Structure formats: C-alpha cells, structure tokens
Amino acid sequence: MTRSRFYALFLTFFFTGVSYSQPYWQKGTRLATISSNANLDGLESGFTNAGINTSAGGALFLDEKWAIGVDGKYRWAPLSQSIEASVRFQNLVYGASNSGHSLLLDIHLTAGNNMNITLSGDMFGRRTTAIGLGAQYTYWLSSSVGIYLWPQVNRTNSGPSGLWDWQMITPVGLQLSWQ
Known about the structure:
It is elongated and about 55 Å long. Strands 1-2-3-4-5-6-7-8-11 form a nine-stranded mixed β-barrel. Strand 6 and strand 7 form a beta hairpin. By secondary structure, the chain is mostly beta strands. Helix content is about 10%, strand content about 65%. It has one domain: Porin (Beta Barrel).
C-alpha cells in the first residue's frame, strides 16, 4: 500500500468515526436521540457515491436503573437504501446527571432490510440482523450537560459479504438533561 493510499484510508476512518456523533436528550425518565449526516465519496476525477444517514430513538426508564428503548435508522444512496430497527435493554450501573460520571450498559437486537439496484435496473436485497452489547460512559460537565462515549459491539450479517462478522461503532456526542 503506498503512502498516499494509507493516508486516504486513515482519513476515511477518522471522518467516518467523527461523523457518527449524535446528541442525546434526557428529561426525567425519558431519553431521546436524533442524528443525521450526509456523505460524498470520490476520487480525483469526481464523485463516486453520495448518501444520507438518519437515525432516531428513545428510551423509557422503568425504574431508577432499568430502561427499554427503540431506535430506527434509514440510509439512502443513489443505488441502495436500508432500514433498521433496534430494541435496547439498558441498565444504569453508576451515576446520574447530578454526579460527575455515569455508566449505562445495554444489550440490543437489530433487524433490517437492504435494497440495492444494479446499473441495469435489477433489484436485489437481503434481511439483516444483529445482536450486541454497548456501554455509554458520560462525563457530566454540569447537572444538565455531559459528553458521552458509547462503544458498541455487534455480531451481524449486515456487511458486504452477508456473512456473520463482528462490527464496532463508537458514537461520541453531547448529552443534555433537564427535569
């Protein structure tokens, strides 16, 4: 791999990770999140692909420590689109917005559908599923504003091959809390 290709690969990973940040709101026993981003991919000769990603979700605390949540995601590109829905079971292990730190663990299940169109107009698609674990660590700057890091590991068949493999994402964002 030449040096210029290595730098392009590194920058792709960096910007992909940064673009997956999302705000997270909390009001009493309810949590909500929404995010959206757009991407343009290209080479020196011009753009090769474009896409839009949106996601939204929410959770409801059933008691002081346990919550159940749902998430939805939609991705569009000129020749493909996908829809995903997730269910999360969350446990507040440590802290809250009135302490300096908090840790929220989750187990999540995801189901989705990908649809693709070839240049000749043929359509094909597949169903995807995933199961995973996550740990959301929040550093609270004040009782109403925190910065979170939420690494999540999934076992999924949503990759390009359709085979089961491991996937890791790490959203970083701003969490707002008010009563």
